[in-house]
Amino acid sequence: MSIVVFVPGNIVGKYGTRICPAFFLSIPYTCLPVWAGFRIYNHPSENYNYPPKVIQEVQAKDLLRRPFDLILVVCLLLATGFCLFRGLIALDCPAELCRLYTQLQEPYLKDPAAYPKIQMLAYLFYSVPYYVIALYGLVVPGCSWMPDITLIHAGGLAQDHAGYFQESGLAPNQLQGRLMNVVFLCVSEETAQFSHIGASLHARTAYVYRVPEEAKILFLALNIAYGVLPQLLAYRCIYKPEFFIKTKADEKVE
Q: 116 burial class (0-12, 13-18, 19+ CB within 10 angstroms)?
């Protein structure tokens, strides 16, 4: 979803009065996610060969008996609140807490370039619904769509991370298997979280919009944790998929 941030940010931000024909070269880039989606979902579904007894035992456990899932649920709730809060800031919420956060923690959200505002709105209207769906998938067994949507969400975020290293002259770690396909084909499925971190700290960002020195540790901790969470969730869904496999009884009911 980086293009969703880049194109509107160019139009509505402080650079909107300087649009040139080269700007429209970004438009064909929006076709990439569509092509990637067709390519991925035309692949045959992966068949898991787990004994029915194992699947039933795993799906019989409630959330309290699955500690890693419980931690993920708590983290997803926190991430949802974080997205909602920063989305309200992007919408110019007059609450005192929002004002203090932008003043003391992330003044970059008020940058007139508008990229951070568009990004927070993308989180609000894209990531928050995904987190709600993911919460449902972690609580209710047999949600076979969970690994796919989790990979799409995590893949775009990892791609943005890889692009950040490429711009710095560093080679990103190569990813393997199905996750690699999603990472490099779904480049536009998530906003550039790590680019947001870099822009908030970059020397070329106006001083008044840079993260204050005393707030850098908390800022990095919050934003890196927010970027890592989708990767952990994808790891859990792909390498321990028993909870998300539909049983034959569920298929008959459908």
A: buried
